[in-house]
Write a structure and sequence with these properties.
6-stranded mixed beta sheet; Putative ABC transport system ATP-binding protein; MacB-like_ATP-bd; nucleotide-binding; binds magnesium ion; 4-stranded antiparallel beta sheet; 248 residues; binds adenosine-5'-diphosphate; ABC_transporter-like_ATP-bd; alpha/beta
């Protein structure tokens, strides 16, 4: 630990708007979203299909520019960065796993994870060891040297999670990380994911349509029509919502 002051939030957005033009008029996919996530906090973003979750996650990943609003990552206003600096920031400070996991099928599990370190010029002995340990923790200790193209969907999803965490990003984003997992494996993966986020003090945001997965998060943000409409901030209200007894 050093004495440098760290901003309170790893990620903060202020009134973010994203509008897509269409033949039938503009679509307000994200409509004034302000959120903050602290280091070590794991947040779920839920809401019906079309409510703007993926758009919001893409904006947070600096893959999509908002139409309006501001985003701060570790206190840095993303809007003030050049395109090059934004690429560097994304590579160094953000980890993500999207529904299509984008693994390189002809590389092994461990090579896919190491690739993130290589891109950041950080593939040393310690990094290689961490890649193996992380995969083992995600239940893939016996699949390290298998080509990811030959792994099951669920195994690939876990390699993608390891890859999202290996370079010690400030912000970890996951879009439906359990989409291809059976229930038992989904619980295991999200529980491990939550454990790693807490332990390593990352800010984690997970989009999920499976409300049961909210059992492992610290806070739930609910979106509807591009807006944040509800927030569950404590374990008791999250569990009540998970069990379907939220009276809204
Ligand atoms: N590239 C795009 N062009 C036009 N409209 C889009 C685009 N991406 C998403 N949308 C629209 O924006 C809204 C939010 O979509 P999305 O962020 O994918 O929601 P979710 O992930 O919650 O299902 C939807 O109405 C969707 O049709
Ligand atoms: Mg989506």
């Amino acid at each position: 630990m050093n004495a440098q002051t760290q901003p309170e939030f790893a990620i903060e957005t202020r009134v973010v708007v994203k509008t897509y033009p269409s033949d039938f008029g503009d679509i307000q996919a994200v409509d004034g979203v302000s959120l903050q996530v602290r280091p070590g906090e794991f947040v779920a973003l839920v809401g019906p299909s079309g409510s703007g979750k993926t758009t919001m996650l893409s904006i947070l990943a600096a893959l999509l520019k908002p139409t309006a609003g501001e985003i701060y990552l570790d206190g840095q206003n993303m809007h003030e960065l050049s395109e090059n600096d934004l690429v560097t920031l994304r590579r160094e400070k953000i980890g993500f796993t999207f529904q299509a996991n984008n693994l390189v099928p002809y590389l092994t599990a461990v090579e896919n994870v190491e690739l993130m370190l290589r891109l950041n010029d950080k593939l040393d002995k310690a990094g290689k060891l961490r890649a193996r340990e992380l995969l083992a923790r995600l239940g893939l200790g016996e699949r390290l040297n298998n080509l990811t193209g030959q792994l099951s969907g669920g195994q690939q999803q876990r390699v993608a999670i390891a890859r999202a965490l290996i370079h010690n990003p400030s912000l970890v984003l996951a879009d439906e990380p359990t989409a291809s997992l059976d229930t038992e494996r989904a619980y295991q993966v999200v529980e491990t994911f939550a454990g790693l986020i807490h332990e390593q003090q990352r800010a984690g945001i997970m989009v999920t349509h499976d409300l049961r997965m909210c059992e492992f998060v610290d806070r739930v943000l609910q979106m509807r029509d591009g807006k944040l409409v509800k927030e569950y901030t404590d374990k008791a209200s999250i569990m009540k919502m998970v069990r379907g007894r939220a009276n809204d």
